[in-house]
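Review this fold:
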Amino acid sequence: MIDTHCHLDDASYKEDIAEVIERALSLGVERFVIPGADIEDLNRAQVLSERFKEVYFAAGVHPYHAKEYDEKRLVEALKHPRCIAVGECGLDYYRLEGESEEREAEKALQKEVFLRQIALAKAHQKPLIVHIREASNDSFEMLWQHKEGLRGVLHCYNADAILLGLAPQDFYYGIGGVLTFKNARRLLEVLSKIPLDRLLLETDAPYLTPHPHRGSRNEPSYIPLVAQKMAEVLGKSVEEIQKVTDENAKCLFKELAS
């Protein structure tokens, strides 16, 4: 299995990162992808990828950190042999604050930074790791408009039907611990509509810990819980889900196949 989205550069792993990786390896998780979110954490992600042969990283700026966008630093990181994607980047309107004018200004900034990272993915021929929260229509419009030569994954797929239209455009759907939540009705209903060859496993660790471990720190060793629930919902064997999601991850992130 491959955890295609885990923030192993998070401070919560500082004291036991080796043990966290070893636990996951012992349960069959063979590869880990650390997405970029905050420029300040990029160096640690790179160091971890050099320290552990199973770890890869991406370079990007989360929409929450749009004001800190540093394209020069991202381009530098994208040249590293263990850097396999651009992101996570995208649009997130969940925490917009202030008056209408301020909210619109923040949206405009997020769109500008997202567009620049889409351009980076194309220029460097790397997949895009996309974060979308309460911004599905705008995100779809931007990705569709620039779909030529673009591929990627919709991280923590939010079950919005409009985003299913990206599946034929070489986009994948990251499914994590949310699938095991009691209130995951929408995701449970839409999961079968995603082509099997477009599904990826992820944890978003240390966040979104799957049942029955909710309330504790998430980690890649919990990926089997997501695979088990996915198999149950789709009427497949766990082995089949593990095999197909592994193949999908290696198809999107070519370096993982080596």
